Amino acid sequence: MINGKVAIITGASSGIGEATAMTLAKAGVKVAIGARRVDRLEELSKKIIAEGGEVHFQKLDVTKREECDNFAKAVLDKWGSIDILVNNAGLMPLSFFKNLKVDEWDRMVDVNIKGVLYCTGSVISHMKEKKSGHIVNLSSVAGRVVFPAGSVYCATKFAVAAFTEGLRQEFSVRSNIRVTSIEPGIVATELTDTITDESLQQFVENGKKMETLQAQDIANAILYAVDSPPHVNVNEVLIRPTTQEK
Ligand SMILES: NC(=O)c1ccc[n+]([C@@H]2O[C@H](COP(=O)([O-])OP(=O)(O)OC[C@H]3O[C@@H](n4cnc5c(N)ncnc54)[C@H](OP(=O)(O)O)[C@@H]3O)[C@@H](O)[C@H]2O)c1
Question: Can you tell me where the transmembrane regions are (predicted)?
Answer without folding.
Answer: none
